């Protein structure tokens, strides 16, 4: 054997040893982590756990989870579980620094999300720090129901929705006119966020101009940091940037809260919003709600109200234009509404929106397909056997917003997407180019 061959053999032996050591270490560390979480439960509880694995120490399966959701195949994380453990619909894992159970079948999800007695809201600590412990996500079930009872009439009540329609119409009509007169294409998602931002700040703060549009950038930073593999509050890390963004947002809301709280009723801004309703509310002991709770409630609604509505509206528009027959049926429904309208009536009314049955189904189907939330978190109060509630307070308002937009859009405008094959970024679920499109007026 020549010295050259011996050198090659040595290199291969070293490589084989490195690969073998890596494989051993990989398997050993994962096994240690599995033992740490599972054996502590005891033999009886261990045997009743769903299939799965706990991943690496400290980070669990967060790296593979985020890699999947930031790829062009976000379902790959779940598909890998199905491939390894079968189509059980329920798997054990470790995510966001906690031992977790993933439930992904409709039947099991429905049971858990409607069982408030055994499953309470249980968001990871990283998300709780960003959303706030005192918020709709962190309060008890009884307090959550009380707050919903207080908030929902001001958002989804018949009188409230009727009052908002005129304002939403004004924003939609002026926005569409501006887009159509723009000489260059627009970022459809970015522009839609402006619409929903104006609507939600008007409703909750009382004025669309009271919070700067630049605040929307901070929402994005905060949401991005919420899903970092390691929630480390050190400069340079996404989670630290998210916490800083939260501070900026809180500082933007706080002055409006202070101004309303310390002025007498006659001196308060005549344009009232949800903030005034919260200031007038009392807790179970008859005390005013704490500033922290009010700020967190407003912050949560502002984030959810403008981000999710814009994303659903984006995909609704894309899906309709990708399916011409569906687009035509939706348009015909809007034409029929115009035909039935008395000549003296100016603009849409709530009863007309309630008659948009076909469009309503299209919106519901878009919500189903988009799957806007990355995940919905619950925490088991006790050991629970699952064999096989809380709804969004602003759901009706969001659908009203989209219905008004689609009414004017379908009747008067044409949509042309510039980059129809633009990749989709996850977990946001939006086109990489924010859907660059040209909006033109129909002849």
Automatic annotation (TrEMBL):
The keyword Ribonucleoprotein does not apply. Keywords: Iron, Membrane, Metal-binding, Transmembrane, Transmembrane helix. The chain crosses the membrane at residues 12-29. This is Cytochrome P450. Belongs to the cytochrome P450 family. Signal peptide: none annotated.
